């Protein structure tokens, strides 16, 4: 007898799709600190990073349920590593466990996401202050390495390529820090917000050029070695990223709501001839 489909469950066949470069970058970020490669990683870690990649690409959506039995059936593995994989994703705050529902992809509301960006901004202030004082040349080198790729992605209008290169630049900056707690916290926050940043850019591709310009402004500030300007520029960039992510969280208006809104808009009366 065929199994009933789990309510509000994703099509887990997406877990079998070969990962794209952005998904691979997410996988590597979650495996940070481990000496093994993806292929040599424990089964639970391999499952966790694959799920994280498809969540980032919004192939599995916020609020959807992830059941051990469904995942183990699709991936042909036992439920034990799946259970461990879900715990890994819970630590990364990409999923949460709810009573009577099990594992659910996190769906922060606008206030939660705003709070996350407040923390992210504060941590970046600490990170950049440290790097500008201790490793300015290395920070300049990171920008010199990554900016051509960001510019190329923006000019090509590729949302996924641009999201990837921005994510990699953020990670490269973070990895320069000797404070491993900051590294872990910022990487975790970047993973949590990445899907919303990507969705925001996809909804308005014109933001690619705006975002690229903000990266360029930060690069110039770093090259000038003016810490105050660096911190101010970084704050503005994070605020723009926050606004884009918040915009991506807004559900699209239904056709019925759009018609209702249009009907409620008063028409301008034509002036008499």
Question: What does this protein look like?
Answer:
This protein has 273 residues and is mainly α. It folds into 2 domains: 94 residues, Arc Repressor Mutant, subunit A, CATH 1.10.10; 138 residues, Four Helix Bundle (Hemerythrin (Met), subunit A). The protein contains 11 helices and 3 strands, in the order ααβααββααααααα. A 3-stranded antiparallel sheet has the order 1-3-2. Strand 2 and strand 3 form a beta hairpin. Helix 5 crosses helix 6 and helix 6 runs antiparallel to helix 9. The longest helix is centred in the middle third of the chain and has 25 residues.
Q: Can you describe this structure in just a few lines?
A:
By secondary structure, this protein is mostly helical.
What's the arrangement of secondary structure elements?
Elements: H1 21-30, H2 43-56, E1 65-66, H3 68-75, H4 79-91, E2 95-98, E3 102-105, H5 110-134, H6 136-156, H7 159-175, H8 180-203, H9 207-224, H10 227-249, H11 255-264
Antiparallel strand pairs: 1-3, 2-3
Helix pairs in contact: 1-2, 1-7, 2-4, 3-4, 5-6, 5-8, 5-10, 6-7, 6-9, 7-8, 8-10, 9-10
